[in-house]
Q: What sequence folds into this?
């Protein structure tokens, strides 16, 4: 970044001057003092002229330096997930190409794109325009999560369809609507800890537990005894074996056995 700034400064400083005696301008950032140093090397007359121009910019009452510095779109790690946090003052997302530009920026390594609600065009919250569906589908196609961050209560109050969309989206994993970045962090934390699921190795009965392999064998014998020529033998699955055992035992874990569906 500094190299580009120096190159631009050199080009601007040498505009209209003798190419045989160019000015050399360097910028150095002092992190401890949080200041930017400007170093000018070259002809005294040209240096004085450039310093005069800098003084006119820095000290003049033109409002150039009074503008609030805005945060650019930034890649951040939040809750262990790479998130592209978009600048609230950035350009509006008003077309499908604008959405694709955000997706392209996310290819730097982001898994989630957090877009402030105020950057989304009003058509996004009017489902009849289908703009929201087109934008969300693009994020889904590229396997990126889209998080709309901000207060959209005014839009929700005007549209029951939008309320339903927000409700269903927040139950899924691809599109989220959250009030702020803290709420986004909470969702990312919850997603990082999926529930543990393990395959059963035994089936509990009132008289003890039976290994799943034995349950399948018992169900196979049952099916074989009831098979005929017009109904060929079908190998039972663990689920059907469990249902069959449930009908053979009076209770499973203290519950009434379900009706088998063979």
A:
């Amino acid at each position: 970044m500094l190299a580009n700034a120096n190159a631009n400064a050199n080009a601007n400083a040498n505009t209209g001057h003798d190419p045989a005696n160019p000015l050399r301008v360097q910028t150095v950032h002092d992190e401890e003092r949080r200041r930017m140093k400007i170093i000018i090397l070259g002809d005294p007359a040209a240096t004085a002229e450039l310093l005069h121009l800098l003084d006119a910019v820095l000290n003049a009452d033109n409002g150039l330096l009074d503008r609030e510095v805005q945060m650019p779109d930034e890649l951040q790690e939040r809750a262990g997930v790479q998130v592209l946090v978009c600048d609230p003052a950035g350009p509006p997302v008003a077309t499908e190409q604008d959405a694709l530009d955000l997706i392209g920026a996310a290819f730097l390594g982001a898994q989630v794109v957090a877009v402030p609600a105020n950057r989304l065009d009003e058509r996004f919250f009017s489902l009849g325009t289908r703009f929201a569906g087109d934008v969300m589908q693009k994020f889904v196609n590229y396997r990126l999560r889209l998080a709309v961050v901000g207060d959209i209560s005014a839009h929700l109050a005007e549209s029951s369809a939008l309320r339903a969309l927000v409700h269903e989206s927040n139950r899924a994993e691809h599109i989220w609507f959250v009030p702020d970045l803290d709420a986004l962090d909470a969702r990312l934390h919850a997603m990082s800890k999926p529930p543990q699921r393990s395959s059963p190795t035994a089936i509990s009965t009132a008289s003890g537990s039976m290994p799943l392999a034995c349950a399948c064998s018992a169900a196979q014998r049952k099916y074989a005894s009831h098979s005929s020529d017009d109904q060929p033998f079908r190998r039972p699955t663990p689920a059907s074996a469990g249902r069959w055992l449930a009908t053979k035992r009076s209770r499973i874990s203290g519950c009434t056995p379900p009706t088998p569906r063979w």
Summary: Confidence is low (pLDDT under 50) at residues 1-15, 201-207, 222-233. The first strand starts at residue 24 and ends at 30.
